[in-house]
Amino acid sequence: MTEITIVKHDGEYRGFECHGHSGYADEGEDIVCAAISVLTINTINSIDHFLDDEISVTTDEKKGDMQCYFLGGISDEAKLLMDSLVLGLNSIESRYGSRYIKVESEEV
Fold this sequence. Notes:
By secondary structure, the chain is α+β, with helices and mostly antiparallel strands. The chain has 2 helices and 5 strands. It has helices spanning 31-50, 76-96; strands spanning 2-9, 12-19, 55-60, 65-70, 101-107.
């Protein structure tokens, strides 16, 4: 299962963490894992390419781990990208179930 934590402070996004592989299908055939990867990587790339928000990203592909944190304040545009990420991830969880993906928020 892929566990995704959306990290917030005082209701404002601070970042997100993804841990584990979904286990929906074999490697290379796993559409749940592919969808999660597309959403998370595109969000990171969009923030990095289009915005001035500073982020820190760490990954471990073998473990299926990814962390992305904002290093300062967060722009309105980055909030929209994060809202879109959360919408997409929640849609995957609704469609495929918490056996493969679990999305939760954590207030720090």
